[in-house]
């Protein structure tokens, strides 16, 4: 039997050679990468995203004038195994040119210069002018065709001492400083300059309301609405001295006005309905002026003399310093003060026919009840009435 030793030795030698080869191969060094490139660069701010071209070692680009270069983020992928400084994730604003240094695995360095700028705005518009005076606010229209602002102002406002604020294009400047201008008794010229240097001039002209106007609806009377208290004892649904009825009328002007006198029309003097005896004493009527939402914007009273026998009742509203805007609805509502305990009434005259124009802007009525605890000061008791009531308004425009 032959010995197995020589064969074993041969196999052992082969295995040792293989192992030696493997060890030697593992000891061979893999060269380090020399790649040190910025592969792309993307800027994000809110919903805005933009990528920029890389030309050799430069990154140059712009963003629109509306995009601020703060509160941003940069996405800058680089070659595998390389490092970059500064860390792009730490950059959230760009205030000027800067550079990135990209270092390859083998230490090779490449420097990229970055120049990303915001375009200068060319906007140079006056967007809004606001006048605050005597508790009133005016926002006149700006004529963008000829860059003018014209507004008529109630004569009770002093044009030599106005609080005016202006809003203009973002990044633009304005001259003179609006806060330094108080006197608008003569036209004032403003210059708005864009960030890019483009200029635009605006002329502001404010004129006092001095022309008289009058809107009369005192004709065409064919309706008579109960107005005031009620002392009847023989009406099933109405308790004596329990209700007070008021009337109202909406108005809308085709130009800005400063109303000074408001007139309503009644068919007779105040009397007790049950006896038809005249009251023959002075009474007070209350006038509330509301906006289209029912909010009271002004109020006043007027005295009706005991000798009043029907006709016009006038409210002096000039001292209320009112300004009514063009094409805006205002609601006048009037009623007898203490109508419930007095129990006297008259008739508010009106027109029951349909029509168009100022005199047909919409009538109102309301009823307050003592037992229900309601008041004619409460807008919820007022409702639209099918009649339009006879009124007259005069003043300045």
UniProtKB/TrEMBL annotation:
Family matches, as InterPro entries: DUF5018 (IPR032186)
Lineage: superkingdom: Bacteria
Residue ranges of domain DUF5018 in the record: 77-204
One Pfam family recorded for the sequence: DUF5018
Designated name of the protein: DUF5018 domain-containing protein
UniProt source species: Flavobacterium ammonificans
Taxonomic lineage of the native organism: Bacteria, Pseudomonadati, Bacteroidota, Flavobacteriia, Flavobacteriales
